[in-house]
Amino acid sequence: METKDTYEKGLKITGAPSLDELHASPCYQLPPKERRALAAVIECIEGIPCNPCETSCPVGAITVGDEITNLPVVDFEKCTGCGICVAACPGLAIYLKKYEFKENLSYIAFPFEYLPLPPEGATVQMVDRYGEYVCDGTVLRVVKIKRMDRTTVVHVSYPNDYYERVVNMKRLPAN
Amino acid sequence: MQRIIDHPVLGPLPEVKMVRIIVDGESLMAREGEMIAAALIATGKKYFRKTVKTHEPRGIYCGIGRCTDCVMTVNGIPNVRTCVTPVEEGMVIETQMGYGVWKQEQ
Amino acid sequence: MEEREVVVIGAGPAGLSAALEAARAGAHVLLVDENSKPGGQLFKQIHKFFGSHEHRAGVRGIDIGTQLLEEAERLDIEVWLDAEACGIFNTTDVWIVRNKEKSVTVRAKRIILATGAVENSVNFPGWSLPGVMGAGAAQTMINLHRVLPGQKILMVGSGNVGIIVSYQLLQAGADVKAVVEAAPRLGGYGVHTAKVRRAGVPFYTSHTVLEARGTDHVESATIVQLDDKWKPIPGTEKELDVDTICIAAGLTPLVELAFAAGCEPLYSPLLGGMVPWHDRSMATSIPTIYLAGDISGVEEASTAMEEGRMAGLSAAYSLGYVDRETYAVGFDAAEKRMLALRSGMFGQKRRDAKAAIVGHSRG
């Protein structure tokens, strides 16, 4: 349950949504561990006037609705984990996740708009919502295609233990 | 204080012709068409002028030609807004002291 | 004296949109801007815009700018660059200095002011040192001019400008050491603060910058915590190793031309201070003069574009270029798109402040 204390330490204080805030928001749904495919996870809990997530989804799995300040909600029944919304979101607030895609390893695909990009196969430092190092990850794919308009999506495997906590990776030092 | 050679959104810095400018007597290279302030920041210049009474250093503040904090003496004309004035080949740019001094007839 | 039907002053997102809309309706438009390139501050907005499809959401500001310029070219809109509008006389005559050389007066049937806004500053010991600059100035340097004004940044202010520029400084390769916010809560969109925070940038709420130090340039800064009366708490000072301090403390509308012309002023603190009174159609108290964008109250580029369309269409309608029905349909659509942008917990206050201006009785 959300308390005054956790709220005060949340998004408007630290800059990052706390797990309490996320769990209290209808927008945020962590894909259940038994789900077989990747699924979109959205961390957009404030009701800003924005809906490219909804309009970009080719299978209609994300609903914002007529009021564009409604919170986006993902329908896991429809979501195929294609990742188009990840690069379409102007707030970079969407990633894909799957629990245990291989033995003891979870999968995340997140937006990344920094240089340099990691090479596939590289070991990178995975971070939580506060930018703190959590664990190492292995880069599986680096997807940079025209329709994603210069937002790269990096696919990484990382230990199951940190399934929910990991959201992105540390920027790499300049070459 | 450096040029941004590659950028995740804007891509690699486009190649352009370089022009020679003279800054406080020193010959430096700048990108053709860029603003004087940008060229000077790229060379690491710390301040652009000193104030009239207390001789305090000043640099860019608004960067879009409104505040006049970044003015320098350019080709003998004082109080030129360097953030909105492009460099030209052979341009003579001087750190301005106070109000500056006109060095050529209008 | 030269004559034009519609003169638009300022070629940023609002002015460009106004010029396009008036020209589409059939009016002959002259667009003037004091800069050597059109686009205003749009070409430093390298992020994807919010909104819905009809607001061009998901498209980066730079690309929206390019689209607007291409359209202006297709519509053959006359553009004067390096042209400073210095005054408006007799409600119709615009005094313009071209290329810092030649004075020209243009008689306009309608004038649309889209002069934008200027960044506010915050004063503290050392604030005038080189290295202290507007957040927008840093954004101009990195995204337009491709130079980094510094490597180690302190951002003062956590509204969307402060947060977006912090993000773009990271993208440009700088290290943002901290974002301080004097209020007890962060101001900007949570999705923006979240992406900056997960990049490892700490936020300090109820904090401000106390002092900047350095000989010829900023070499360090001290930040301090504020109590609930906004007074510094002794003993909470923290020294930061920074070479650049960016100030993101809001903007003030650039209203000089409007007030010199005699447009009636109104105070709207939420929208940046003194603004010219205007009605729903964006007309000021002088019926030949219209407004669009930040001059009518500081908002954002997407709202500026909608307001430009509303003003351009209204000016064209008042000149008889569109019939009443076409005008009503076009205007209502633009207004509806605008209201969508002024909704939700962030937009509602702006919507109320705008309604207060339009609803304010004059005289």
Tell me the layout of helices and strands:
The complex is a heterotrimer of chains A (175), B (106) and C (363).
Chain A: H1 4-8, H2 11-14, H3 19-24, E1 39-42, H4 52-56, E2 62-63, E3 73-74, H5 84-88, E4 94-102, E5 105-112, E6 123-127, E7 133-143, E8 152-159, E9 168-169
Antiparallel strand pairs in A: 1-4, 2-3, 4-5, 5-8, 6-7, 6-9, 7-8
Chain B: E1 2-3, E2 18-23, E3 26-31, H1 36-42, E4 49-50, E5 57-58, E6 71-74, E7 77-81, E8 92-94, E9 96-97
Parallel strand pairs in B: 2-8, 4-9
Antiparallel strand pairs in B: 2-3, 4-5, 6-7, 6-8
Chain C: E1 2-9, H1 13-25, E2 29-32, H2 61-74, E3 78-80, E4 83-89, E5 93-98, E6 102-113, E7 117-119, E8 132-134, H3 135-144, E9 147-148, E10 152-156, H4 160-171, E11 175-181, H5 190-197, E12 203-205, E13 207-213, E14 220-225, E15 238-240, E16 244-247, E17 251-253, H6 256-261, E18 265-268, E19 273-276, E20 289-291, H7 301-318, H8 324-341, H9 344-359
Summarize the structure.
The complex is a heterotrimer of chains A (175), B (106) and C (363). With 175 residues, chain A is of the alpha+beta class.
